[in-house]
Amino acid sequence: MVFSSLVFLCIFFPAVLILYHVSPGIKLKNIILLIASLLFYAWGEPKWIVVMLATTFIDYLAGVVIGKSKKNGVRKFALIFSVVVTLGFLVVFKYLNFFTENLNLIPFLNIPQTDLVLPIGISFYTFQALSYVIDVYRKDVDCQKNYFNLLLYVSMFPQLIAGPIVRYVDVAKEIADRKVTLTAFSDGVTRFVIGLAKKAVFANFAGLLAENYLAGDLSDLSVLGAWTGIIAYFFQIYFDFAGYSDMAIGIGKMLGFNFRENFNYPYISFSITEFWRRWHMSLSGFFRDYVYIPLGGNRHHQLRNMFVVWLLTGFWHGASWNFVLWGLYYFVMLAFEKYVLGKIMDKIPKVIRLIYSLFVVIIGWVFFYFEDIPSIGRMLGAMFGITSTEGIAATDITTLTNNVFLLVICAIAVTPLCSFIANKFTTKLKNSPNGAIVNGVLTFAFQAVVLVGCMACLVGSTYNPFLYFRF
Amino acid sequence: MNRETRIYSKIFALLSTVFFLLVLGFFGVISFTDVDPTVSETENRKLATKPEFSVSALMAGTYTEDFENYYADTFPLREVFMSLNSKISSALTQFSGKEDNVIINYEKHDSDFVGEGIDVGINKEDKTEKTEEKATEKDFHAEEKDAAFKGSILVSKDRGMEVFSGSDSMTSSYAELVNATASAMPDGVKFYSMVVPTAIEFYGTKEFTKGSHSQEKYIGQAYNKMDSSVTTIDAYKRLAKTADEYIYFRTDHHWTARGAYQAYLEFCDVTKQTPVKLEDLETGKIEGFVGSLYKASNAQVLKDNPDYVEYFKTRVDVEGTVYEDSSMTDGYSFFIVARSVNSSNKYLAFIGGDQPLEKIVTSNKNGKKILVIKESYGNAFVPFICDNYEEVYVVDPRQTNFDLPEFIKTQGIGEVLMINYSFAMANKTFSDALYAMIDN
Q: Which phi and psi (to 5°) does residue B152 adopt?
């Protein structure tokens, strides 16, 4: 199930919320949440739910062994065993065909392909499970003695299929005990509808515009058309993914969990280094803490460490060469910023740094969108006037004029402007009783209008893909 | 924050909590109790039905997928949400430019490239029941031939128009096709070629009629590349002159009978024949035609402003028979011009839509025989020339394959007209099919 489906929104979600909140005691609440999460997962992945259950079970056992044992050898063995098995599932389901396909390029080699399809969310929950075992090994957190509590952490439906990648440390306490206040619930509703709007309105409409240009014959693209298409995709992928994270965080709030932020306005970054501190923060945090720093971080072999991290980051996004290229592209850009731009970066005017960062990110999305290398070449060729048929096609101006409103509000919505204004208002209003009423009415009206508008968009449009679903 | 303020905040938090649960829950509950609609009138399609539950479907993931489709299709107040959605959509993506122009990109896999015709099989039984003069659409097989490609539609005020883009290679390959067809003809056969421009040429905004979008330029170019054995018929001028008349549909990519009549006048001019006068023909209207451009664009304005099909019966008596191929066995009769059409595609009123091979015998006794090679643009044209010939043969290469030169020879046909609309110049399905018929 995805949050932007009507079955989730109007059947599953309200039913779970009501059952959850009328149930007394944390134990019963956890049971309901666990059952709900498993149903949520099984709805889209009835077969391979066993992989999730098994992964969690192995990591649960490993966690107990690591947590209880005093012998270093035993702890190490348990860690290695669980990491190998957990990653093993990911490799078999996600990367095996890619490896054999490429090995088969060697003459006379013909390894048969498996017909396994990628289980939904495996990339996300694998990382959550891994982080748990490693954290227990590092003694950052106590092991979880109840399998079902660990399963609840791994499978919890708000973050299960598209992140954020929640750390066990961050939710361990809340699994044991948590409270939801009315205000927190209402804040959760606001957060949820904002996320839903990002997905159902901004991402979907931007996606339609992107598809117009990118899904067709690339050799027909004009320069302007190519840029319009990729900029629309630039908006789509942000709103799609950030919207999902917002919804996850909002649902978390309604259930008493406080997940960490996953996006922090990445499109107002003044360098690529900054972009990656703001984009998909739970993923970059994972690679930082479990790969980059253990390898030596910036103390030794920094360049090698960066290379490994970005190779893996690219590869995590998909078993395809374009994602590897995409990761390595960022490795090159980050190394360039570190070793070449480094000191002079501060002297460059902010506007130029912003344009530079956005430019690099937009080019990056070309590698991300097109899974075959020739298309990447054709797209870049079209963008820079090498293979494009003309500068501006007749339809371009009309298309652009029609979508100007969409693009402008997308551009505003990627900045903190709206939340800045909203926060300023609410803090002022909250100080007086009358202000509190005005604030309450405005909040309520906002939630209602956005919710109904989003439902209309979901009912009315057949186009509702979900980009990060496949990772 | 004082106590009062805190209470207010709490009250509103409660209000939004309750509202959120109520709204979502309301639609959840109501959807289980209400009666599900089965067809959508506005979208002209069947809605999904509740899927049968089975363990195998569940495990394959198809049950949940079908259930989601069913749920979305039968959602309570769906029509209300749909219209709200289209308002949001047009606010965001159809920001009114100064001329209300909207470009809609679409995937096309429809009748243009596969052809669409009445179900002649149905008429077999009630062949004699001529009085009804109804055409019923037959299932066309878009999927199996799969000619999907992307196109753009310009919606300007209440008119939809496909955006044309020409190229030198397009006119070369089309001229090559015409030349090859002409030279494959038996000796003594007169060969005419007519390429018809589409509506955007006359009603489109400037940027869509100049440069690579100028149909005048590319049609002319194609004519110039044709051999001297091909007599070209320039329908363009007369259409341009009468553009203020109802010569093109607004919701459909075809021309009207009135438009086709202008081309017929030019045809008679070039072939030195006397055209029949429009005033002399019995005429009528088939109302409520919302055509292909609406289907492809979903533009509400087109749906709200339907076209009508104005038909003109032939002056002479005509008898038409459809055959699968040149063996001319098992024919079915059809109406050259139908007075009503039992399908949303009212353009099927003309010669029963796209059929493999049609033979029309008229009450003229002048011995003249003509064969028309066409896609659907030819359909509105054919009825007029019935007044000038004793026998008219119509071939749609996409629907059949036989030795065309041989057929022309055995039937003693003296003239061949190849009529296409400008978009067909780039249509590989059409050219491949025609090459197959002349390379036999």
A: -125, 145
> Between chains, do B93 and A456 touch, taking CB under 8 Å as contact?
no
> What is the least distance, in Å, from the CA of B45 to any CA of chain A?
14
Query: In whole angstroms, what is the distance from residue A160 CA to residue A123 CA?
Result: 10
Structural domain contains residue B87? no
Q: Could you count the other beta carbons within 10 Å of the beta carbon of residue A65?
A: 20
Q: Which two tokens stand for residue B347?
A: 């353009």
Residue extents of the structural domains in chain A: 6-178, 184-413
Say if B97 falls within a structural domain. Answer: no
B230 beta partners: B191
Residue B104 lies in a domain: no
- The CA–CA distances, whole Å, from A152 to A34, A36, A42 equal 5, 10, 14
pLDDT digits (tens, 9 = 90+) for B219-255: 999 999 999 999 999 999 999 999 999 999 999 999 9
Asked whether the beta carbons of B380 and B311 are under 8 A apart, the reply is: no
Structure confidence by residue, pLDDT tens digits, A346-377:
889 999 999 999 999 999 999 999 999 999 99
Contact (CB<8Å) A11/B154: no
Cα–Cα nearest to B122, from B108, B105, B107, B134: B134
Which pair of tokens denotes residue A218?
């690339």
Pair (B277, B328) in one structural domain: yes
**In a shared domain, residues B38 and B150:** no
- Domain-embedded: residue B94: no
Q: Cβ–Cβ of B95/A205 closer than 8 Å?
A: no
**Do both B41 and B185 map to the same domain?**
no
Total domains present in chain B? 2
Q: Are A314 and A334 in contact (CB under 8 A)?
A: no
Secondary structure element (H or E) that encloses residue B334, with its range: strand B332-334
**Smallest Cβ distance to B91: which of A46, A405, A433?**
A405
CA gyration radius, chain B: 26
- Both B74 and B135 in one domain: the answer is no
- Name, in order, each residue with C-beta under 8 angstroms of A312's C-beta and a sequence gap of 6 or more: A287, A291, A327
Cβ pair A402:B13 closer than 8 A: no
Residue in chain A lying closest to B206 (CA): A394
- Determine which one of A21, A280, A300, A317 is catalytic: A317
Provide block-wise average pLDDT over 10 residues at a time, chain A (471 residues): 86 92 93 95 88 95 93 93 95 91 86 84 94 94 94 94 90 92 91 95 93 82 93 96 95 94 95 95 95 91 94 93 96 93 87 96 96 93 84 80 90 93 85 82 90 89 63 58
Q: Which residue in the set B4, B14, B97 is minimally distant from A182, CB to CB?
A: B14
Distance, in Å, from the CA atom of B318 to the CA atom of B328, rounded to the nearest integer, reads: 18
Q: Tell me whether the omega of the peptide bond preceding residue A164 falls within 30 degrees of 0, making it cis.
A: yes
Domain boundary, last residue among B41, B59, B81 = B81
The model carries a pTM of 0.75
Provide the greatest CA pair distance for chain A.
80
Rounded to whole angstroms, the Cα distance separating A69 from A363 reads 50
Query: Which residues span the domain enclosing B43?
Result: 3-81
B164 and B229: one domain?
yes
Contact by Cβ (8 Å): B379, B354: yes
- Shared domain check, B11 and B134: no
For residue B357, the surrounding DSSP H or E stretch is: strand B357-362
Task: Give the chain B residue nearest A449 (alpha carbons).
Answer: B20
